[in-house]
TrEMBL record:
Keywords: Phosphoprotein, Two-component regulatory system. Residues 14-109 form the HPt domain. The keyword Phosphoprotein applies. GO terms for molecular function: protein kinase activity. The keyword Endoplasmic reticulum does not apply. It comes from the Bacteria. InterPro entries: HPT_dom_sf, Sig_transdc_His_kin_Hpt_dom. One of its GO terms (biological process) is phosphorelay signal transduction system. The modification Phosphohistidine is found at residue 53. This is Hpt domain-containing protein. PROSITE patterns: HPT (PS50894).
Amino acid sequence: MVDWALFSRTRTELGASFVRILGYFQEDGEKAVARIEDGMHRRDATALILPAHTLKTEARQFGAEPIGALAEKIEFAGRRAVENRLFPDEILPAVVQLRRLFDETMALFAAEMNPLAQRRPAFGRAGTNQEFGRI
């Protein structure tokens, strides 16, 4: 569900700003999902495009590829609908799935960011810092 290597690389690159920017992603992502749901409810294809595009790009920066792929599907369906003047009713399951996927991914991010969580060992390392000094 999350490319943890990409997540870690982004975390390293952003340094001290990472937590703040991840918080922005969570806030913006929540709004984007709500705007997509609202656009679907109102049958407004134009309203699907920008929030789906934004969510796609931001999710992929944090390694949340399934969200990115689903948002891309919604974005492209919205663009086709605007061009063809036919609302994309067939993407309703994807819009419903997007909410669940976003919430699950945010829960994974929160668990990973919890300072009390036990971390996965890095490649080539054995044990965790909880093992240090033990016989």
